[in-house]
Every structure is written in C-alpha cells, then in structure tokens.
Amino acid sequence: MNMLKSLVGGLLLVAVGCAAPEASHSKKSQLVADMKRATDHHSFSKPDEAVTTHLKWDARVDFDQRQITATATYQIQTAKDAERLLLDCRDLTIHSVTVDGQEAPFELAPVRPFLGQPLSIPVTGSTQEVSVAYTTSPDAAAFLWVEGASPFLFTQSQAILARTWVPCQDSPGVRFTYEAHVEVPTELMALMSAVNPTEKSADGHYDFVMEQPIPSYLLALAVGNVEFRSVGAHTGVYATSDLIDAAEYEFAEMEDMLVAAEGLYGKYAWERYDLLVLPAAFPFGGMENPRLTFATPTIIAGDRSLVSLVAHELAHSWSGNLVTNATWDDFWLNEGFTVYFEQRIMEAVYGRDISEMLSTLSYQGLVDEVDAIMDVNPNDTHLRLHLKDRDPDDGMTAIAYDKGYFFLRLLEETVGRRTFDSFLKTYFTSHAFQVMDTDTFLDYLNDNLLNTEELRSAVNVPAWVDGQGLPGNCPEVKSARIERVDATLNAWTLGNIASDALPWSDWLYQERYRFLSNLPDNTDAARLAELDAAWDINSTGNNEVLFAWLEQAVRSQHTKAYDRLRTFLVGVGRRKFLTPIYKAMVETGQTELARDIYKEARPNYHSVATGTMDELLGFVE
Fold first, then answer.
1. Which secondary-structure segment (H or E) carries 210?
2. Which of 124, 236, 270, 302 has the most CB within a 10 Å radius?
3. In the predicted structure, residue 194 carries a pLDDT above the cut 60
4. Contact at 8 Å (CB) between 134 and 96?
C-alpha cells in the first residue's frame, strides 16, 4: 500500500485492530504495535496506549424502565508501557470493572458537554481483556423508545452517541469486531448491525456476530415486532406487519442495486444487505449500519420513486463502512464519496436521465446551503471540517455530501470516467477495513490520479478542500427535464399557464419537487389553493413532494394546508424535513404556531432532532 509511506504531521493512519477480516493474529499485533493516529478531538480514548479489538456484549433490554443492563467485554491490545484503557461514556451507570477476570478500580472524570466523560481502567502491557458492567440511562441520547401497543427501540450511534449505550472507544478511527447476546421481550425481535435472525426466537434471546471490524458509530440495535421478507439472493427487508407488504414492493430492486454497485467498485464485503424500516420518528433518511440499513418509512412512496436513499446507504458499504473517515473533520471522505457512488448506482439501474435530475437537485440544495453558511461561518464551507470543541453533528451539512460529490465529479470529468473508476476501485480494495484522513487521501490522489502539474492545476484541490464556497470550476449539471420544469414554473409565475394546465401528472417526483421548491416565497396563498384544487398535492403520498409543498404553504401562509402540516410534523421525525419547515415558520412570524406544534410533536422525536429544534425554537423543557 503506497499510501503508508506518507507521514502526515508524523501520524501514520492504518487499520485499527486488523488490516482485513482475514488478517492473522500476528499481523494484527504488529499493526497495533506500530500504529500512530490522527488526533480525534471527539474521543477521550488513547488507542496508541491501549486499543479495543473485539467486543463481547451481553445485554438485557427493559422496556418498562427504558434501560439496557449489559456487560461489555473487550479484547484489547496494549503498548508495552500501557497504564490505562480509556473508554468514552455518557450517562452510563458503571457498576463494576474487571481486568483479566479480576475486579479492578476505575475512574470517571468530570462530564464535558456532548462528549460525556472518560472511563479510566488500569491495565498493563500484558492485559488482554477488560469487562465493564453497566446500565444505560432512560434518556440515553442514542435511543428512541416507542411506546404503545407495538413497542419499538432503535439506536442512532452516529456521530458520537454509541458511548451513551456502550462504553467504547467512540472514534471512527478505532475498528473492532463484535459478538452479542441480547435478551428482549418474547413478542419482539432483536436485530443488530451483524448476522441477523429472520424469525423470532421462542425465548426472546438472540445471538449476533460481526466478523468484519467496524467503528463504534456503526454499532446498531433495534427491537420491535417485525418480520422479514427476502427480495433477492443477498437482500431482504424487515418491517412491522402494517408496512411489510409495502416495503417488500418498494425495495424489490435492492439486489439490482447491489449487483450494479459490485460492477462499479468491487465485491460487497458484508455478505448480506438487508434493510429495516424504522418508526417515522427516525431522525434521518437512512443509516448505513453494516448488513442492516436503518431506513425511514417516509421513503415508502408506493412507486419506488425515493429509492435513491437506498442507493446512498448501499454505497456506504464501500465509502464509510469499508474505508472510514479517520475523524469527523474528515467526514467528506465518507459522504462525498457516497453521494458520488449513489449517483453512479442510480445511473446504472435507472438511467442517466434520472441521475442527472437528482444531481441537479443536489446542486440547488448545495448552493442554498453554501449561501446560508457563508453568512454565519464561511470556514464551514471547507470540505476539511473544523469541529474541535463542537458537536460533530454540526458537520452534517450539504458541504460534506454535495460539495464532496461535485469535487469527485470534477475529478471524473478531468481524467475521464474509465480512469477515475479504476482509481476508485483500487482505492476501496487497497484500503479495505482501514481509516483515511484528508491529507493522506490527498497524497494518494496526487500519487495515483493527479500525477501531473497540468491535472493538479485543472482541479485546484486546495480551493475545494480548504477554500470557502464553491470553486469556479464546479461541474455544471445539465438536465433537459429540469430545464423544462423551470420554464414551466416561470410561465406559471407570470400567469401564462393555468394551474390545471400544468403537466403535473406526467412529471416524476423530482420534477414536482423542483417546481414546488422553487416557487417564489411571496407566492399568494390563493395560487397555492389553485394548485391544490387541480392536483390534490396536500394528499400526496410522496413525502419529498409533500415536504416541499408544506414548506411553501408556510411561507405563503396557505392556512388550508395547516392541518396536514401539523399531522406531518407530529408524525414524522426526519430532521431534513423538520428543520426547514420550523425555520420557515419562525422566519414568517409564526413562531407561536411552531412552538405549539412542536410541544405536541417533541415526545415523538429522537434526541438528534430535538437538539436542533430546541435551539431553533428557543424551547426549554
């Protein structure tokens, strides 16, 4: 691996725990003994002194108390002069610690905002195993407990919430394998980011194995009354009984996506790719937990129109899960690559016409995000993030995703698709199960792709990685279908085309979304009423279109849509939808309405969403 010759500020980045699943024990030991790492400001762990390589997790899930009682047993590897193992914890009650089977003292340092506290355990250069017995808090930030007739629990560990349910070295630069034994109520099924059951057990006990090393943010647990349906040789879906038929239909083409992805960038490394439909309170569109993507039900549209999200999470099986950002400052190495890969999968399965419409929408969102960020903190438009002393969730913007995508698209257009595909495929295979930081990637890029001054000048990498805003050589996206929508919108705005004369029924969701999201903010509510009377937009089953409609309804104060608005905001916890709509209410002098709806909706939201909305709305419990 020629990247390993490159020292970045004296820090050498290699795989943590092992170079690949099949690596020998002696090779693992040598890698751990030799490794140096980039500094992760979001973890207390010191893996150069003692690093976790395998987790055995024994847990009991208690819905009545909204807690998990567990023992986390780690196999560790240590430096010769090691004195302590540091694990990240947040809101955990530590009951006891053992080191190589003997009870040991431990220390918990003072709590720091959003980081929690380090758990310090004494070890030596010969220590092999450490166990921690603990209980989670009912308010653990990673959890959402859904109560009622059909209880459900799911976790969201990214970015640094794994420490709220497992004491761990909660850094993307530390990888480990794991096994687990989980006890849940007998009427429910437990699932993890591991080898999963397809039927409920009789006694509520489930065993899991993840043989490939993963970082802590990919630890995942879900418990609910779900069932499984196979949709391909290596793919399947889990959902509750009321959604399983719809999910089976909606995601029937996952196997085609998997085959297309393998054809682009190499063999899928995780054996199976299954998807779990979570309750609507899930704060994201999807989460790329290995072997089991977590997905929002808001992508079930009935016509497979929103499956680009599945393509995105599948792409993470290479970019992120296989080659992982070393720290959260390097987040674009996960997400920019994934958006690029997602677009290539969509093009391969559905055609370039569709993928270019998606790219056009991405560009529009990126321009809007860049404009907003430039008004607050221009440095947050760098691809290389600056998140020290900040919650890493601050970096989850369109910059990492879409600026990253357009940078990679520029690389493709500069060197040619065939050359770029060969580069990416080699990059993924040669760095499989390793971590990557920005400087090391740029050295690899210059050595293996931009290997002439002419190419480096054409791309201008510094302007993309450490420059503000969008560089002047950002690729242009051309979509004839989107251009026709824009022309139609202009005609409608000028009154030259009636609402009932729009080609609405012929448009795909991307075209409908483009029309609605680009309506002028001062559009009269009466004109929205005309649109709804013609096309019944308020009743659409496509949540992307509905979101664009409701945001515009708020800005135009089209109050006839407000019953649907309240139902949507109370029933859906996806932060992508919530933030713009609540923000629109604040910006249009409807803050009291926003707070009234939020008060009703907040108990249904995950902490990832409430953290954002609390600040936006000035909400205090």
1. strand 205-215
2. 236
3. yes
4. no
| Residue bearing tokens 């705005």 | 493
Residue type at 95 in one-letter notation: H
pLDDT of 550-569, one tens digit each? Answer: 999 999 999 999 999 999 99
- Greatest Cα-to-Cα distance within the chain, rounded to the nearest angstrom: 81
DSSP class of residue 111 equals P
Evaluate whether 367 touches 359 at the Cβ level (below 8 Å).
no
**In whole angstroms, how far apart are CA 460 and each of 414, 427, 449, 450, 454?**
11, 21, 13, 10, 10
Q: Which residue has the tokens 């970019």?
A: 319
Asked if pLDDT for residue 26 goes beyond 70, the answer is no
Radius of gyration of the chain (CA): 24
Sheet hosting strand 189-192, strand order edge to edge: 143-146, 152-155, 221-224, 189-192
CA angle 465, 470, 476 (to 5 degrees): 115
pLDDT digits (tens, 9 = 90+) for 134-193: 999 999 999 999 988 889 999 999 999 999 999 999 999 999 999 999 999 999 999 999
Residue 195 to residues 75, 228, 274: CA-CA distances in angstroms? 20, 14, 10
Catalytic residue selected from 179, 250, 313, 369: 313
Q: Can you tell me the distance from the alpha carbon of 488 to that of 615, in angstroms, rounded to the nearest whole number? A: 38
Q: Rounded to the nearest 10 degrees, what angle do helices 607-617 and 575-587 cross at?
A: 10
**What's the confidence (pLDDT) of residue 37?**
55
Place of tokens 């195993």: 129
Q: Please, which residues bridge with residue 129 across strands?
A: 75
Beta strands in 147-201 (DSSP E): 152-155, 175-183, 189-192
Angle in degrees, CA 502, 506, 510, rounded to 5: 95
305, two tokens: 């129109």
pLDDT in tens, 354-373: 999 999 999 999 999 999 99
* Amino acid 149: pLDDT: 82
pLDDT above 70: percentage of residues in the chain = 94
Best CA proximity match to 89, nearest among 114, 57, 52: 114
- 572 burial via Cβ count (<10 Å: 0-12, 13-18, 19+): buried
Cβ atoms of 220 and 97 within 8 Å: the answer is: no
List pLDDT tens digits, range 405-439: 999 999 999 999 999 999 999 999 999 999 999 99
| C-alpha distances in Å from residue 254, one per residue of 188, 273, 307, 312, 338 | 26, 8, 9, 12, 16
CA distance 66 to 139: 8
Vertex 248 angle, CA 246 and 254, to 5°: 130
Instruction: Write down the pTM of the prediction.
Output: 0.92
Active site residue 313: yes
Terminus-to-terminus CA distance in the chain, angstroms?
A: 53
Burial class (CB in 10 A: 0-12, 13-18, 19+), 443: middle
3-state secondary structure 522-590: CCCHHHHHHHHHHHCHHHCCCHHHHHHHHHHHHHHCCHHHHHHHHHHHHHCCCHHHHHHHHHHHHHCCC
